[in-house]
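User: two proteins, same treatment. go.

Assistant:
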Amino acid sequence: MAKPTGTSGYFQAQMRVDGKVVGSFEALPFSKEKTEVEKHMVERFIASMNKYSETTGDRSFLADPQLNPQDDFDFTVVSPNGPAYLELMEIAPLTGPYEQAPTEYKPYDFGEAILSGILKKSSRYPKNLGRDIYLLLYVTHWSFALSDIAIACLRYWLREQSTVFRAVFTYEPIDAEEGAPHWLFPVPSELIGSFDPEQVRENVCLNLNPRNFQVVHERKP
C-alpha cells in the first residue's frame, strides 16, 4: 500500500582537493510503500537498541521482526519474555501536506497530540492477549523531530496513563543506517524526577530545515 512520507536527512560537508569546503543535503530514500517504510524503521530501531545493549552488557532487547499480514499486528518479534507484538505509529500530526507542516511547535501541545494517538491505538486491543505488545513511534519529517521537552512530557504522562503496551519507544532516523531511539515508557522514576509539564506549557521548539543548511566561509579581513 502506498503511503506518503516526509523529508528527513542530513547535511554533509566535504573538503574538495582544491581545499574548498562544500556541502549538500542528503535526503533519506524512503520507500513509497508503507510496509517497506515500517520494516526499515523497525530493523534500524532494533539494531540501534541492541547495539546500545551490547555496550552496557544488558540482555538483547528485541530480535527477528516478522511482518504480519494486513489486519493483524504490524510485526511479531522475539522479546526477552518470548514472542511479542510490535505496533507502529508515525508521529505526523498533519493538517495538510508534509511540506506545509510548521517549523515550530509547543512541546506540551505536540506531546498531547502524540499521547492522544497512543491512547487511541491502545483502546483497540484487549488488555490480556497472552503476549506483550510494544509500540514504536517513528518520524519521517524533520519538522516533527521530538524535542527533549516533548520527550519529558510524554514520559511523565505515560507514567500516569494506563495502556496495553509493555513499552513505548520512538525512533528518528539520522541517515539510512543510524538513528536516535528513545525509551518513553517505562522509565526509571529518577529520569522524570521533579519535572512538571505545566511549567513548560508555553515553551516553543523551532526545528530547522536541513535542506536550507549552507557552508559558511569565514571572510578574511
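Protein 2:
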Amino acid sequence: MQLSIVTTLYRSAADLREFHERAGRAAAALVRDYEIVYVNDGSPDDSLAVALDLFQSDRHVRVVDLARNFGHHKAMMTGLAHARSDLVFLIDSDLEEDPETLSAFAEALHESHADVVYGVQQKRRGGLVERWSGWLFFKIFNLLSEYAIPENVLTVRLMTRRYVSALLTHRERETTIAGLWAMTGFRQVALAVPKHVKSASTYNLGRKIALLVNAVTSFSDRPLVMIFYFGLTIGSLASVAAIYLVIRRLFFGVALPGWPSLIVSVWMLGGLHLIALGIIGIYLSRVFIETKQRPYTIVSHVYEHAPESAALDNPRNRGAVLR
C-alpha cells in the first residue's frame, strides 16, 4: 500500500462525508493504492455511524473505534499505529485544513528528500486573546524545553514510514504529540497552508494552560533546575540582608521597624514555597503515571475489509471483517 490518510473523529459527523469525498479524490489523484483510517475517539455524536456507513461503501476505509474518549493526541498516535502504508498523511477531519493540500505536501516531500513535511498556519486565526495565548504557549514551551516546536504548527503533515515507526517507539502515557514530533528528529520541512475558521477553538485558555504544563513537564527538567537556582538566589539575598541588619543593629543601633514588611515577606516566601512544591508534585505524578504502564488508548473494534486475494478465494470473505 502506498498511502494512509489518518484522521480522528470527535463531533465530526457534520463534515465527515465531505471530508471523505475530498480526501479520497486527493489520494486517488496521487496514488493507486491507499487507505483512509478513521479513529473514533469516543465521539458523542453520530461520527461512528457515518464512518461505518462509509466503510460499507468504500473498501479503502478502515475504522478504529476506541473504547472511550482518550484525547486528540492519543487518538492520533493510535491511528498512526494502525496505518500500513509507506507514506502517512495525518489531518483533522473538520476541514479546517483542505485535504487537497495532499498533493502539495507530496511534492514538497519529494523535492526536499525529507521524512516529514508539516503544515504551519499562514496567519494565526482567532481574536486577540486566542492569538496572544497561542503565541505565549509556543514561547514558554520553547524557552523551557530542549525540543523546540515550530510556531503555529498544525496537525496536517505527510510522513515517511521510517519516521512514523520511530515516532511510535515513544510510549508516554501523558502524550503531547507536538513535542514528540520534534523530539523524534529526522529531516522535517515546513509548508505554509491556509487554515479555515469553521468554529471556535476547543482549546480555551484553561486547556492551553493545562496543555502547556503537561508539555513542559513531559519534555524538560528545567523547571526543577530553576527552582534550585531560585532558592539559591533567595537564600543568598536573605543571608546578605541578615548580615546587613546585624551590622545596623550592632554598630548604628538601628532596628528594622515594620511588621507589615515582615508579613509580606512571609507570605511571599510561603507562596513561592507552595509553587515549588507544586512543580515537584507534578513531576512526581508523571513518574507515578508512567510506572503503571497503562495503555494510552484501548481499542474496542477495528473494522476493516478482507484482503482482495481472500475475497477472490472465498466468496464469504467479500464482506467486512471485524478484528
